[in-house]
Design brief:
This protein has six helices and five strands, in the order ββββαβααααα. Helix 3 (84-97) runs antiparallel to helix 4. The chain has 159 residues and is α+β, with helices and mostly antiparallel strands. The protein has two domains: 7-59, Thrombin, subunit H (Beta Barrel), CATH 2.40.10; 63-158, CarD-like, C-terminal domain (Methane Monooxygenase Hydroxylase, Chain G, domain 1), CATH 1.20.58. Helix content is 51%, strand content 22%. The termini are far apart. The radius of gyration is 17 Å and the shape is globular. Strands 4-3-2-1-5 form a five-stranded antiparallel beta sheet.
Length: 159
């Protein structure tokens, strides 16, 4: 159970803050929802409270986990399928998992691949989405700005 003011991560959307808990009627069914504000993209989402576990809602990472994310970003590219379709599906599964470390892996691998060979339109869109999810959590976890996080991640890949 989360409370108003808690910072949480909603897989595939990113990190944000719970701004309200409201009862709403959707499709004729009354339910309680977390109303979550996502700072990047200035969006609000309604998350059914009874579905929190299956949706993978979780708390924002701590300082130690932030360090691990940066270690992953600085690591070497891991083996990926040369088949575009398999690579795309494997990366999508990692993003959908909501695991920040797997999202960081996707960002690292696709960024390095983009620098080496370029990316297809679909993979470039996936990289942008994964980067957005990663940055939203790092902004909150480090109490930082989007610009500072972008700069830090950019420097990692310039080395």
């Amino acid at each position: 159970m989360y409370n108003v003011g808690d910072y949480v991560v909603y897989p595939m959307h990113g990190a944000g803050v719970i701004v309200a808990i409201e009862e709403r009627e959707v499709l004729g069914e009354k339910q309680e929802y977390y109303i979550m504000a996502l700072p990047i993209g200035d969006m609000k989402v309604m998350i059914p409270m009874k579905s929190v576990d299956e949706l993978g809602l979780r708390q924002v990472i701590n300082d130690e986990e932030v360090r691990r994310v940066y270690q992953i970003l600085q690591g070497d590219q891991t083996a990926m399928s040369s088949n575009w379709n398999r690579r795309y599906r494997a990366n999508m599964e990692k993003i959908k998992s909501g695991d920040i470390f797997e999202v960081a892996e996707v960002v690292r691998n696709l960024t390095l691949r983009e620098m080496e060979k370029g990316l297809s339109t679909g993979e470039r869109k996936m990289l942008d989405n994964a980067r957005q999810i990663l940055m939203s959590e790092l902004v909150i976890a480090q109490e930082s700005t989007e610009e500072e996080i972008v700069e830090r991640i950019t420097k990692i890949f310039e080395q």
